[in-house]
Each structure stands twice: as C-alpha cells, then as structure tokens.
Batch of 3 targets.
Target 1
Amino acid sequence: MSQDSKKELAAKEAFELIKADLMKESVIGIGTGSTTNFFIEELNRANVHIKGVVCSSDESERLVNDAYDVFSLNDVHGMDFYIDGADEFNDRKELIKGGGGALTREKILAQSSKKFICIVDDTKHVPLLGKFPLAVEVIEVARSAISRELMIMGGRPVYRQGFRTDNGNQIIDVHNMPIDVPYELEAKINNIPGVVENGIFSKRKADTIVCASANSIEII
Ligand code: 5RP
C-alpha cells in the first residue's frame, strides 16, 4: 500500500472519530500538509453542518470548500478539534512538525483546541524524535545568530532557501539535533531571541494519534 493511501485512510478514520460529536456550534481546526489535505477532502465531501473552520495555512484555507465558513482564531472561542499531520511521532505522542513550514500557526491552533488528533502513517513513528530535520521559524535579521546557537546545541542548521512562512518569516531546518528531552529542548530553542517557534510539539502534544499502516489503523 502506498504512503498516500495510508495517509488517506488515517484522515478518513479521524473524520469518522469526530463525526458524531459535530454540532452546529462546532469549530474544527485544520492543519497543513498532504495528510491533512485528505481530511479536508473528506470534510468537503461530507458537507456537515458546523459553525466553521480555522486553518493553519493559506494553502489549507484555499482547499476548504464554500460550504464552510473560514474563521480567524481571533473570531472564535477556541476549537473543538484540531486535525493535523506530523513529520514524526513517538510513544508519548510528542511530535515533530513543520515540514510544510506552518509550524507556528499549527502550534497556536493545537494549543487552542480541546482535542488534537494527529493523523499519520506508520512511517512517521520513531523511538526518538530528531531524524526528521527540526524546523525553526525565525525573524530574518536573527537567522545567522540563531543558527550559531543551534550549532552549539549540537544541530546542523540549514537555511530553507526561497521559503517564507505565511507570517513572513524564514525557516532554519536543523539536522541531527539531539532531542533527548523534547519538552526541555522545545522551551530552550524558543528562548533564543528572534525565534518565533520551533517544530517540537511536546508541551502541547497530540491527544490522539490515528496511525494507518498497510494492515490496520491504530488509535493511540
Ligand atoms: C506542516 C506539517 C505537516 O503536518 C507535516 O509536514 C506532515 O506533512 P504530510 O502530511 O504532508 O506528510 O507539520 O507544517
């Protein structure tokens, strides 16, 4: 089974999980990436009667069809569910996200939602986070200074050339970063002046992980 088919399965299963709890006041947070795109397709197809959605990127916003009102987070009192993919997850449901560069809004939406359901295929499961490069969103003028700090922490920072986040910032992808204690490193990186956010999701990790493999779907 292809990775895309597994992503689609996970997305469909997540929709099945929340379907019965959707009401006319419900607000769904929607993340970014190819797995989340399958979820948006499912939502578009289902045409459910809810208050609306909040998206973590302009790209996801474009994919949601006209049947749904798209709100800014400032216009709603939080979200019932936040559905998003991940680049890696561990047994503690901590994540690395940000491959698509939307990590800052993703973390804000995850934090503001009652339930964060992460949809993944089994290739994303790792014993220790950090094989996937860790995205750090930075203010442009601080990029080199932050890169030096990240090197001192043991990583190999690589500037994501030609990319701007929806917030107008730049991304440093940190390779081979030792992430022994995700919670501590998440806070430590965010303490460097000029860092907007980093892709470790430990403080606000997933509540539920829907993981699709070739033979089964696991709800963790
Ligand atoms: C975007 C993300 C995505 O959730 C992550 O990169 C996974 O993407 P995909 O579903 O395409 O594998 O964090 O910033």
Target 2
Amino acid sequence: MSGFFSKKYDGLAPYSAGEQPQDKKYIKLNTNESPFPPSPFATRLARESAGDMFLYPDPEYATLVKIASQKLGVNSSEILFTNGSDEALDFAFIAYCDERTPAVFPDITYGFYPVFAKINRVPFREIPLKDDYTIDVKDYFNAGGTVFIANPNAPTGIALKRSEIEEIIAKNPKNIVVIDEAYVDFGGESAVGLIKKYKNLIVTQTFSKSRSLAGARLGMAFACKEIINDLKTVKFSKNPYNVSRMTAAAGIGALLDEEYFKDNCKKIAQTRENFTAELVELGFSVLPSKANFVFAKCPKLSGETVYSELKNRGVLVRYFDKPRLKEFVRITIGSDEQMEKTLEVISEILKEKK
Ligand code: PMP
C-alpha cells in the first residue's frame, strides 16, 4: 500500500472474488457463471452495436428499460440498469445506510455486503443463520436498519418463500429491505411483484448467471418510482454511463430471447438435482439448493482438501476458510458433461483417501 492511501480506508479488506486462473484449462465451477454461451441474438446485437462505440450510450437506457418493462411486467419508472447487480447493491448501501441506519444481513451470505458497508463507511450488523443454515425471518422483524437478504442465499443456495420475504418487508415499514435475487431464476420465488405493494422494497437481479452475461456486467434494480429516483441520483452522481452500449445491446437480446433463457434455467435446475443425488450417493451432505450451485460437505475430508484435490485434477470449485463454512465446498452447476466428469474425479479422490 502506498503512503498516500487515505487513512479512512485503514483495515479495508477488498472482496475476494473466485479465482480466474490463466495457467491451464479447468472445469471451472467456482464463480457461478453459466456453462452456456449468451443467446446468439444477444451476441449479434452486441456485435452490431460495437460500431457505435465512439458515442456515449443513452444514460437512461430507454430501449433496454422499455423492453425489460414489457418482458418483466413492471413500469419503466420502476427499473434501473446497473454495471452488474453489484453496482445496484452498492447504490443501495450509499442511498440507504448511514450512522443511524446500519446495514443488517446474515453472518453467512454474499461476501460483498460487509465490503460495501466498509467502503461506504456505514455500520453493519450480522445476524447468525440457524444451525441448519437457514434464515429465521423473525430475526429481521423491525431490524432497525437497511436489510440485505440474498434469496436464494449464497453460498448456501437455500431460498426463503415469497411469503417469508413479504413478512420481512411488512415488518420493516420504516426501513428499506433489499432482496438480492442473483440466483432466483434457478428455482426461487421472485419478490419483484411486491414492489407494487411495498414502498420500502428493492429487488436486484443480474444477467450474469441465468442469462449468461457475466462478462458483460449487467444488473437491474426494481422498486417503486421514488426509490428508483433515489438510486438514479446516486448513479448520476457517480457514473451516468454505467452500462456500455454493447452491454445494453446484449441485454436487449437476452431479454427478447426468452426461450433460450428459460431452457437454460431448466437444464441447470435439472442438472443440479441429478448432481445432488449423486453426491449424496457418495456420502456427501448437500444443502437444499435453489441456485446454480450446491454447497456440499464430505464426511471424511475437509472443504480445503476437497477443493485442493479437485484443483490438482483440473476442477475448480470455491472454498471459504471461515467458521461454519470450512467443511464445505461450493460447486457451480455446469453442463451435464462437466458435472459427470466432476463426479468421476470426486469418486477417484474418495477412493484414494480411503
Ligand atoms: N449477489 C450475489 C449473492 C452474488 O453471488 C453475486 C455474484 N458474485 C452478485 C450479487 C453480483 O453479481 P453481478 O455483479 O455479476 O451481477
């Protein structure tokens, strides 16, 4: 660190994203990307828009917003597009957390929440998950701060029902509740419809997982018009052109090619169920996932051993060196072939370590 780095960031540990190794080709199941390429229509629109790169994009992204509103059943005034959903979450920390309004989230959840709190210098309170790694909704009633819930949660994959999410929103009338639906398309129940009923709700979603656009960086926030206007104030104060022309074009293609999106989500959910059953057969415990990953624990080997043995054999998964997580590995659901290969490798490791 240089001697010039502001003291206000003393002790800031950045978010550690999953490895993006360049040394060899892995079966890459560590960052919850889609195993499928983007919709060919999305790729075509992005390519066609590249010739206009010399011009700034429309900072309101009117065409993208219009198509999203038609496809997703919300008004244009109730949507904001962002540079990945990470940016939407960051905007929510900026807009709705301060000294008197801490961020409130589970102790085991998306690792970026505490980092957003720290860089924005707002306090936060972490609420422990129950012993079975589920969220007790009652813990979030009158939370006394801005609530952030990933649904399905990460890295557990466990989802709350929409009725449970609604209870949390209804029991926090004086605070904003942010529901992070990065993984909702793989089997969760979305809370987007509830923005019509609740003025304290923000739902964030991403194109990175179910719509195969992780590299394009596109996310969205849904909320009532007043909240979207707050978030726009933040966006226009930080980065008005937060989504590139090519990404906006890809987003339009991805939204219009609904069949491709639905097919891929269905395939991944099916592969997840098959893979889970096979892992259980091999003796693993697997938390019940509604996401495009599973969180699994081997009774005989630590999470770190499973992670490093898999890596040595060319399969990359995610391991978290933290209490209550270190026995597990998080495995992204890839294609059927990738998961079959992964199971073969796991069986090999188990045989060797017997
Ligand atoms: N929320 C959760 C729970 C995530 O796991 C991720 C992906 N790392 C994100 C949000 C952000 O994804 P993106 O910025 O790619 O939309």
Target 3
Amino acid sequence: MLITTQKNYNAYLSRMEELLAQINNYKQEIENFISYSNDAAESFRIKFLGIKGIVKSMMQEMKNVPAEKKKEAGLSLNEFKQIAEAKYEKLKLQTTTSELQIKEDIDYTLPGDAITIGTRHPLSIVRNRIISIFNRLGFTLAEGPEIEDDWHNFTSMNMPKNHPARDMQDTFYVHQNPDWLLRTHTSNVQARVMEKQKPPIRIICPGRVYRNETISARAHCFFHQVEGLYVDDNVSFADLKQTLYFFVQEMFGNDVRIRFRPSYFPFTEPSAEMDISCLICSGSGCNICKYTGWVEILGSGMVHPNVLSTFNIDPEVYTGFAFGMGIERICQLKYRVNDLRLYSQNDVRFLKQFAGVII
Ligand code: DAH
C-alpha cells in the first residue's frame, strides 16, 4: 500500500486501532453467543464467516493497514477468524446433539392419542339395511324432492282437494302457499317415478317427511319413511305379502310373526297395515305394544286403479303393490329407542352406542 501523506497514514492507523477494538468486541460476542434454535449455527456463520460476513470485510480492510502494523493486525484477525470458526463448529455440533436428544426423549412404547371415529346414525344404519334387503329382491333406489307441490304429494295419490284423507297428515305449507308444501310422506316419489317411467317399476324410496305435529317422545315434526312400489303385469296381493314377509325375516329374524289388518289409504285398494309380533315382550304384552303383543310397522296395499290411470298406466293391464314404513319405528324395535327426540338431539352418548354396528 502506497502511503501518500502523513494525514492518510494517521487515518489508517486510527482505523486499524478501531478494527482491533472491534475484534475484541466481536470476540466477546462470540463467546456469549448461545444457540437457541436449530438455525442459530447458520445465522452465526452468515454473520461472521459468510461472503459478506465480518471476517471477510475485515480482511478486505487489511490492505489499508500501514506496513509495519500489518503483522500485528494480521495475527489478531487470524486469531479472530479461528475463534469464529471454532465457535461455528461447536454450534453445529450442539444443534445435531439437541436434535438427537429430542429423538431420544420420545417414548415409543407410549400408546398413541386415540382417534375418535364417528359413528353412523342409527337411522342411517336402519335405512341402509332396508335398502339392501329390497335391493336383493330387485328394488332399485329412487328419490324425490322434500319441498313438493300439492299435486305430487296429494292429488295424484288419489287425494283431490278437500279429500278428507288429507287431514290424516297435518301439512306444513311453504310461505302459506297452498300449492307448495313439505312432503308429508314419501308417496310423492311414486308420482315422480310413474310420470317418467312405465312398468315394470320396482323401486324403494327412502327420505325425510314432515308433519305439523307437536314434538314429543312419540311424535315429531319430521321423520323418515321408506316407500316401496312394484308395478308390473300380474302383481298380486300374495306378492305383496311374500315381499314384506321376506323383509321382516331379514330385518328381525325368523321367529317374528306377521299379520295384516284391513286399513284405508286413498292410494291403495285394498289396503292393509302390517303388524309384527312385539320384539320387546315376544308377544306377552308390554307398553311398546300397548299390551296387545303386536306392533304396527307399515301401511300397504294394491295400487289404486285411479293412481295408475293418472300416470297413463292401464289398470286393466298392470297391477301393483305399494307400502310405506317409518324408519324410526323399525329402529325403535330393533334397538329399543323409545324417544323420537333422541334421533335429532345429536347427543354423542346416544350415538356412540351404535359404533361398530354392522350394516
Ligand atoms: N303414505 C302413507 C303414510 O305416510 C304410508 C303408506 C301406506 C304408503 C300405504 C304406501 C301405502 O305406499 O301403500 O302414512
């Protein structure tokens, strides 16, 4: 380095002293540097030993150091560099050992955190079971809207306006509009299917239905039904009986007895309600069967000729049977659920009991 003036020389000298003082400060800083995190070693390296780090920039200043002072400054800087490098190696080692330490602290024999798996809702379990039984008899799944017009829910099912049977089902109307309602039964799906499809028709239609009832253990403003419909040539009441008998045996076992009682539904003629022997008391009498030994599980009948004609299906050529059952009732008998409100309260203590039930 060419030293031109006394003034410059003095400036370089004082700069060198400054550097030596800085080195001492940095040495202190290095000594106190504690690694708190895994990337502490890396940030240390960047600060002191990186391309733009402190050691490098001090090396560059060496060229300005007066010749007779170069040795002293060089030695000091070199020592500083070595201290930084040694510290860096130490920090690297500390990081890896602390990582190892963490691994060693894990007790692999501890049981893992239990994962709670949700359970199927009992109504879904029963619904799926019903569908699969009827699937095996060739019934396919059909669905229809829950918000329905008067025609599909009532009129087409042989219940014209002012028909007294409409009173059997207390109806919710949408926006007070007498034409739009929440379906009161799944029989609307019969209408939805027959207006599009011609026989043979063999469908099973699960779904939610609504009635304007006060909620209690025995009544709810919404519940679930499964509707069945079979229309073809030569479908007889014997087919209806045999189909439902098969269903009951598959659902409740071979020991259950069934009986049909004459009944009335506007959309079937003749109509019958089907009872099964009480599963709770095996027929000896209890409060579920009201001490009769029998519980009603569904309504059924031969599709009324008026209904077939409405959909341009010739009642002289085709006959059919239909039935409708409440899923809640089947579930009550199968799993002894006595309060309808339990199904919609979402109490996990109730729902958990159905974990692992095979569908
Ligand atoms: N829709 C009837 C109800 O909700 C149930 C029913 C009875 C459906 C007889 C049918 C049937 O298809 O044939 O009470």
